[in-house]
Hints:
The protein is α+β, with helices and mostly antiparallel strands. It has a single domain, classed as Jelly Rolls, CATH 2.60.120.10. A hairpin with a 5-residue loop joins strand 10 and strand 11. The longest helix is centred in the first third of the chain and has 16 residues. The radius of gyration is 17 Å and the shape is globular. The model has no long low-confidence stretch (mean pLDDT 96). Fe (iii) ion binds next to strand 8.
Amino acid sequence: MTQPSPRRLRDFVAAFxxxxxxxxxxxxxxxxxxxxxxxxxxxxxxxxxxFAAPDPERYRQYLLHADSRSRFSVVxxxxxxxxxxxxxxxxxxxxIGVLRGAEFAQxxxxxxxxxxxxxxxxxxxxxxxxxxxxxxxxxxxVRNAFADRASVSIHVYGANIGAVRRSVLLEDGTRKPFxxxxxxxxxxxxxxxxxxxxx
Length: 199
Ligand code: FE
């Protein structure tokens, strides 16, 4: 099977590393990073099928790239029909860009020790990008907008997110620690530029 060109993802990774090179503040990372991510997810011709495969039981999170200095990681989230996350936090900045299908996001905030919705649940269609962080709102629940097909979103986080100590939150404010890990053991080979050299 012919694999799609890894060029878009490689260029995105390079541009994100450039953005972080002079240690910008979070506001600039989220602002410029959102534009980079939007450019990536408006094209759906680059993600190899194995990193877009749903699982019948649970949503999947495939690591696509981890920065060697843990400044950022890029993950494809694959939602099977009707699948949802629990309410969770991130503890670092994150960007979410919808590549395929659509999802609903419900932000939460803490009020008197309890968790309450922070605004309405909103729909993100393909090409949409939004941000989370402890500074701007870090707790949400995300679910596939579709009951009959998979959706895929591309996430960027300010850490090697699969190893970050985070929390699942219950509506009474209880926190349960979790470390997400990743669904894959192999990464896409974005560094093989030979086809481009030959062309
Ligand atoms: Fe999240």
